[in-house]
Write a structure and sequence with these properties.
The chain is an alpha/beta fold. It has a single domain, classed as UDP-N-acetylmuramoyl-L-alanine:D-glutamate ligase, CATH 3.40.1190. The protein is built from ten helices and 14 strands. The strands form two sheets. A ten-stranded mixed sheet has the order 5-4-1-8-9-10-11-12-13-14, with helices on both faces. Strands 3-2-6-7 form a four-stranded mixed sheet. It is globular, with a radius of gyration of 19 Å.
């Protein structure tokens, strides 16, 4: 079994195109057409695979869309372990407006999972032998899946001696951190939801992350803040990274690229500082790609020298 496993309860086939301008009523003719495998954990697995990591993606599949999703995942060289759902896997739709450069993201709700179906996902994870060193839960929960799904994954991973990493939001994130996880990667908005209040400045961001670590809710907090940079907090250190100076093409996939690079490097034995630096470069690299293409390793290497960290 792979060293790293991702679990994505609500995966998708991501369809993306570019149009000249978005206007109502008239037909908007795309000038490109692209399909990528999507969903947080699948995206993270794609990045880890590109970086040479040993990774397997776990996710449910249903109907023709599910079969297409599995084909797309495996075309990227990522090993799949899937379980079946009665309803079809969802599609998401991304449109880039050429006139303004603005991206538009249409996220569909996806299937409703029966109790037996989401339990099958937990059973599949539990059956892995040997068990991975890292388990990454990422993305939203589909309808029918209980709020504490990721908390159950965290408990399972802990019982098998694995480190559990979570990138989710809302009640699913809150339920998981109550029992403690090894790492969370919230955005600034997700962090404010988690702590239940506004975080108006850098001091507040850092204090909120420190409080989560001190309370045992997360051993590591990697906070991504878009144009404001990124922050990584453990019990021993605080690392700050300023955003790189660049003209972004697209913001889709930056967080997944960041997380995939961070875990890939940690799994390979890199220091926290080096892994964080690499993750910042990967997140920036994703901004240079259209649609849901995610980061390119060549862009990461080129941008790495521009990453500057401050330590507290």
């Amino acid at each position: 079994m792979s060293d790293i496993v991702t679990i994505t309860p609500n995966p998708a086939v991501d369809v993306s195109t570019v149009v000249d301008r978005i206007v109502p009523v008239v037909k908007l003719r795309g000038t490109t057409q692209r399909r990528d495998p999507g969903g947080g954990g699948i995206n993270v697995a794609r990045v880890i695979s590109r970086l040479g990591g040993d990774v397997t993606a776990l996710y449910p599949v249903g109907g023709p869309t599910g079969l297409l999703l599995q084909q797309l995942v495996e075309q990227e060289g990522v090993t799949s372990r899937t379980w079946a759902t009665t309803e079809d896997t969802r599609e998401d739709f991304f449109v880039q407006e050429r006139a303004t450069g603005q991206p538009y993201r249409f996220i569909l709700p996806g299937p409703t999972l029966r109790e037996s179906e989401w339990e099958a996902g937990l059973a599949l994870l539990s059956s892995l032998d040997p068990f991975p060193r890292f388990v990454i839960g990422s993305g939203s929960l589909p309808r029918g899946v209980p709020t504490d799904f990721y908390a159950r994954v965290a408990t399972l991973a802990r019982s098998r001696g694995a480190r559990f990493v979570l990138d989710s939001s809302g009640p699913a994130l809150a339920a998981a951190v109550e029992g403690g996880v090894d790492m969370i990667k919230p955005s600034l908005h997700e962090m404010q939801e988690l702590v239940g209040g506004a975080l108006p400045d850098a001091t507040a961001w850092e204090e909120a992350a420190r409080a989560l670590v001190a309370a045992g809710k997360a051993a590591m907090v990697a906070l991504t803040m878009g144009h404001l940079g990124a922050l990584l907090v453990t019990s021993e250190r605080v690392l700050r990274a300023q955003p790189l100076t660049m003209v972004p093409v697209n913001a889709v996939g930056a967080g997944d690229s960041f997380l995939g690079a961070l875990v890939a490097k940690l799994a390979a034995g890199a220091s926290v500082e080096d892994a964080f630096r690499f993750a910042v470069a990967a997140g920036a690299a994703a901004l240079l790609r259209t649609g849901t293409a995610l980061c390119d390793p060549a862009d990461i290497t080129r941008l790495l020298a521009d990453v500057r960290l401050e330590t507290a």
